[in-house]
Amino acid sequence: MNALRFVLVVALVVSGVAVAVPAAGDVPDARIVVSDVSVSPTAPEPQNTTTVEFTVENSAGSATGVALDRVALEARNDDAVYAEASGLGSLSVGDDVTLELTTAFETAGVRDLALVVETDDEDGTTVTATRPVTVVVGGVDAAGVTDDVQVDARTVDPDELEEDEQPDVGLSPDAVLGGNDDSEEEDEQLRTSLIRVEVTNFGTATARDVTVAPTAGNESLPRLSVPNVAAGETESVLFDAGAFDEPTRFGFEAAYTLGTDRSTSDTTLEYRPNRGEIVLTDIDVTFEDGTVTITGNAANRGLGEVNSAIVAVEGTEHVSPAYPARNYFVGTVPESEFVRFDLTADVDRANATAVPVTVTYLAGGEPYERTVELPIDGAPSDTGDDSGVPLSIVALTAVSGSVTLVGGAALGWRRSRGRD
């Protein structure tokens, strides 16, 4: 590879990264790459010399040599040209050249510029590469750069999606976002697992090189790229939580460059999957002549229909399911609906303090199961808690054993893997 070096001394500012684009919009034979851009000093003082060095390469993947027709420093937000040079020679396939552009800035401030490299290939096609460059003259404080970038996350329904948003999510083949507009009746809204992560810039300079790093508990997930966020603007990206079928606490950390500093902002989201979820509410436990009667509601607080729900008394050494209601087939429970149930059990009152009740159901075709222990004495007729049975009196029984939950803990359903 031949290496050429030119020094251009002009009154300009340089910044950025470049991608080759043909004038006509087709894929070019020449593949021009602008790389290794550096500004020295990184935070120049006003009226002092600033040097920008960069490399232009005719990639080895190119099919043609090129002539370096023009290099220019231009404003990114208007048509102003700060400096330009032309007739810089040619680059064969695989050749590169290092250029230096030198300037001085009169006043402090943030300069958002674009380095433009124009070339002609052997067929006469113009191929242009541009790369953004930001120079913070006088440093962050003198340039008046303030950092106030915030990130927010929330679940979204398909009807909330913007026209230019194209979610890449694993929907079933017959799924239609937003329902069928040709139907005379209102179709049930298709719910997806989409989370919109929004990055808002309340600062005074553009937030550049923005990435969002999601986490699920202690697990790091692939990063998401977000467009540069101008001052006073908001940019967003969609995150698909379809792989998570249990309630999950997601974290989203946005990393960005403001001026010359790299900073972060973060938020969390308590995610509930798009499926039905049964909880027991309005529980009433009474004891008479050795028999416990339990009444309550099997309520669906989830985001989908629940099927084949059964509420049953679990037998123990001191508790036995009893006629007439050893178990109760609740059946189908639509979203945000409930079904009343009754259960009966024979109890050794001298030794038993609670009656275990197991609920099984299907949500999204997957089986789920939970066992809660209902105290024989002192159970309120209305828990006053939309999460169901009071947490301080509930034991969550897994296939391999049981864990007692104390006040303030979260009740969790587990997918059934078979029952003993």
Topology (SSEs and partners):
Blueprint lengths: L2 E7 L8 E5 L9 E9 L8 E10 L7 E10 L5 E6 L3 E2 L4 E9 L4 E13 L4 E12 L1 H4 L6 E7 L38 E8 L5 E10 L2 E2 L3 E3 L7 E7 L7 E11 L2 E11 L6 E11 L2 E10 L5 E8 L5 E3 L5 E7 L4 E10 L6 E10 L2 E10 L19 E4 L2 E4 L9 E2 L5
Parallel strand pairs: 1-8
Antiparallel strand pairs: 2-3, 2-10, 3-4, 4-8, 5-6, 5-7, 5-9, 9-10, 11-12, 12-16, 13-14, 13-15, 13-17, 17-18, 19-20, 20-24, 21-23, 21-25, 22-24, 25-26, 26-29, 27-28
Order of helices and strands: EEEEEEEEEEHEEEEEEEEEEEEEEEEEEE
Q: Could you give me the name of the CATH homologous superfamily of the largest domain?
A: C2 domain
Average pLDDT number: 74
Q: Span between N and C termini?
A: 71 Å
Give the C-alpha Rg: 32 Å
Helix coverage percent of residues? under 10%
CATH topological fold name of the largest domain = Immunoglobulin-like
What coarse outline follows from CA principal-axis ratios? elongated
Major sheet description: 10 strands, mixed
Poorly predicted parts: 1-17, 169-190, 378-420
Total discrete domains: 3
At the first level of CATH, the class of the largest domain is Mainly Beta
CATH second-level architecture of the largest domain: Sandwich
Report on this model:
The chain is 1% helix and 53% strand. The protein is mainly β and 420 residues long. It folds into three domains: 3-142, Sandwich (Immunoglobulin-like); 149-161 and 189-271, Immunoglobulin-like (Sandwich); 278-415, Sandwich (Immunoglobulin-like), CATH 2.60.40.10. Strand 5 and strand 6 (81-86) form a beta hairpin. It is elongated.
